[in-house]
Amino acid sequence: MAQSREQLTMDMTKSDNSIFKRPRGCYLSQAKAVALFCFCVLAAVAVGVITYYAVKCDDATEVQQSEAQGSDGKDSEGKPFTVKVKDVRLPTNIKPLYYKVDLIPYIDEAKNFTIDGKVWIDVQCLEDSDKVTIHIKNITVAEESVRIGEIQTAEEPVDSTAGNDNMKSFRIMKHGYDVPREFYNISLDASLERGKIYRIYIPFTAILDDSLGGFYRSSYNDKTTKEKR
Question: Which domains does the chain have, with CATH numbers?
Answer without folding.
Answer: 28-85 (no CATH), 94-207 (2.60.40.1730)
